[in-house]
Amino acid sequence: MPRRHILSARQRSALLDLPTDEASLLRHYILADDDLIHIDRRRRPENRIGFALQLCALRYPGRMLAPGEVIPLAVSAFLGAQLGDLPPVWRTPMIGSAEPGGV
Q1: Nearest to residue 54, comparing CAs of 32, 73, 39?
Q2: What share of the chain is helix, strand, coil (3-state, %, to 5)?
Q3: pLDDT in tens, 5-15
Q4: Alpha carbons 91 and 55: distance in angstroms, whole number
């Protein structure tokens, strides 16, 4: 039996896409002091940014990041600014990704 879609592609996008506008980033993706302490326990910088991305995506829009999902540059730059400088692997464009720092 074919799968039935309740929401249109536009509705799914509005509900599940990561925020990219400044107001939404400020509202949903500011890391608290205890978040930063927890994130700092990760040993390597690439783990810290990845953990922060997963934490923020779980909080809003309430989902896990998909393997190979391209992270908007606004999100990775916003979180990178809170964690300190981004590791070099996040500063260079990945082959085949739409933006630098795609996960």
Answers
A1: 39
A2: 50, 0, 50
A3: 898 889 988 88
A4: 21
Taking every pair of C-alpha atoms in the chain, what is the biggest distance, in angstroms? Answer: 50
CB under 8 A, 24+ apart: contacts of 39-48: 39/83, 44/87, 45/83, 45/86, 45/87, 46/87, 46/89, 46/90, 48/83
Q: How far is CA 41 from the centre of its chain?
A: 19
At 23, the amino acid letter reads A
pLDDT tens figures, 42-74: 778 778 888 999 999 999 999 999 999 999 999
